[in-house]
Task: structure prediction
Amino acid sequence: MPVKKRGIPSSAFIISLAKGAGGILMKCFDKPHQIEVKPNAGIVTEADKAAERYLVNKILRKFPKSSIVTEETGEYPGDSGLLWVIDPLDGTSNYAHGFPWFCVSIGLYFEGKPKAGVIYQPFTRELYYAEKGKGAFLNGKRIRVSKTKRLEESLVGTGFYYSKARSLAREVDVFRQMNEIALAVRRPGSAALDLACVAAGRFDGFWERGLSSWDVAAGFLLVEEAGGKVTDYGGKETSIFGKKCLASNGRIHRRMQAIVNKIK
Ligand code: IPD
Ligand code: CA
Ligand code: CA
Result:
């Protein structure tokens, strides 16, 4: 596994963050939750907040000049070149209902470029880790995207944004079309984990509109380091701030693109 360079967090530190936050999520999992509704952005529980507090404190104690972007408390400015993009709990609706498809997601950037990403699913104790140029791993074992060539044989995932103000009619239409062609379509409810599944070859592809940087910062690097492809719906290069994400094993990308690109 990768080594520590001066000023750059080690893989051990990044992994310890995800595991620590995952431990907090598991402690609260079976207990009644304090649920708050966020305007057009789903819900937040006491566990999201506690895991985020833990992550921010731990990062700033060890790397005090870090910049951090988090879902719940926003932006912490810093000037060390390190940028942490954090979703302390991805899949909050699942979590709040006891449905164990949720994770911690942390993407690390250095001087504007992706450096590392970790996604931890504490219920199954599966830890996905990727480092730029060094590959993607699941519980320490190298992972690669699937080799499925035909959309007809593919298992693909998607998600729907929370906003009740905007119509989902187009998304539903694309879902229907994809479902008619692909082997099957799933909507599990944690975009970060869905991307990790593409990296691990469990999904052949994934698409979703309206995701935020913290949903995808770790997942994009995982997919790319596992040999997959991440673009916008038109097949063009995207970033974690792009609003239309298409990720796949590369082989079915154009077929998926032809379907999802109907969403304007
Ligand atoms: C959500 C999940 C979900 C996706 C939503 C996200 P949250 O994140 O990733 O799968 O469909 O677009 O907002 O609110 O559970 O952190
Ligand atoms: Ca999220
Ligand atoms: Ca979240």
